[in-house]
């Protein structure tokens, strides 16, 4: 019952809450970035505490959740992929920015500054780092490792992949149809990658590395400019 209760929360309760919050129009209270970062950390931390309790109660081991040391060839190669690929992505992005025409670069900088989700001050950058660690490790563990383990006996492997991907994609909230579709498709692809390799470590690195590299590459654009 504890497995089903946590799975129900991850598949239905949390995604519905996120969708509702993102689509509210009237009486919406705007929180600061610091408040949003702290709220995310709190949500992930409390859910991870529930996960630890449920796994202890039901005898799930870290290996059951995809946290065993990489042993197979696919898992090892996939672990090397983000370690080598993420720095290459960063340098390719900076190189592309340098080669941009001035007007396109200015438009890109304006778009970055318009995003209210990205940090601005040094304190916000530090908190964003912690938030990214919680999101990347926590949600991968919950929505990939745990949900796949719990849902597979009921739905089969690919049923668990599909439902877990739909739930996690919906958990990103709703901004527009394209954003929601992209979130769901990306979540399903991550779940497929986990099932194929049987290991979470490389997915955690990817999930943490991509947003961190994005913010690092935009640091000079985002930080407050002197008057």
CA radius of gyration: 19 Å
* Oligomeric category: single chain
Structural class: mainly alpha
Range of strand content: under 5%
Total beta strands: 0
Helix coverage percent of residues? Answer: over 70%
Mean pLDDT: 87
Secondary-structure element string: HHHHHHHHH
Provide the domain count.
Answer: 1
The rounded distance between the terminal residues' Cα atoms is 59 Å
Low-confidence stretches: none
The main pleated sheet reads as: none
* SS element count, helices: 9
Basic shape = globular
List keywords for this structure.
227 residues, mainly alpha, 9 helices, hydrolase, membrane, CPBP family intramembrane metalloprotease
Description:
- The chain has one domain (2-15, 42-222).
- The longest helix has 34 residues, at 122-155.
- With 227 residues, the chain is mainly α.
- It has helices at residues 2-23, 33-58, 73-99, 102-114, 122-155, 157-170, 177-197, 201-217, 219-222.
- α1 (2-23) runs parallel beside α6 (157-170), α2 (33-58) runs parallel beside α5 (122-155) and α5 (122-155) runs antiparallel to α8.
- The model has no long low-confidence stretch (mean pLDDT 87).
- 78% of the residues lie in helices and 0% in strands.
- The protein contains nine helices and no strands.
Chain-wise SSE layout:
Elements: H1 2-23, H2 33-58, H3 73-99, H4 102-114, H5 122-155, H6 157-170, H7 177-197, H8 201-217, H9 219-222
Helix pairs in contact: 1-5, 1-6, 2-5, 3-8, 5-6, 5-7, 5-8, 6-7
């Amino acid at each position: 019952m504890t497995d089903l209760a946590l799975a129900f929360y991850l598949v239905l309760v949390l995604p519905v809450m996120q969708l509702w919050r993102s689509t509210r129009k009237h009486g919406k209270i705007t929180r600061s970035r610091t408040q949003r970062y702290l709220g995310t950390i709190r949500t992930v931390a409390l859910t991870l505490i529930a996960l630890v309790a449920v796994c202890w109660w039901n005898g799930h081991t870290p290996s059951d959740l995809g946290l065993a040391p990489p042993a197979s060839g696919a898992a090892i190669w996939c672990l090397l992929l983000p370690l080598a690929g993420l720095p290459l992505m960063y340098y390719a992005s900076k190189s592309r920015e340098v080669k941009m025409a001035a007007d396109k670069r200015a438009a890109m900088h304006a778009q970055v500054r318009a995003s209210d989700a990205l940090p601005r001050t040094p304190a916000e950058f530090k908190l964003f780092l912690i938030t990214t660690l919680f999101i990347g490790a926590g949600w991968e563990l919950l929505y990939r490792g745990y949900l796949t383990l719990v849902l597979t006996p009921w739905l089969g492997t690919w049923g668990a992949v599909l439902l877990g991907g739909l739930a996690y994609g919906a958990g990103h909230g709703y901004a527009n149809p394209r954003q929601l579709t992209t979130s769901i498709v990306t979540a399903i692809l991550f779940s497929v990658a986990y099932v194929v390799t049987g290991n979470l470590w490389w997915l955690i690195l990817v999930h943490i590395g991509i947003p961190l590299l994005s913010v690092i590459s935009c640091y000079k654009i985002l930080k407050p400019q002197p008057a």
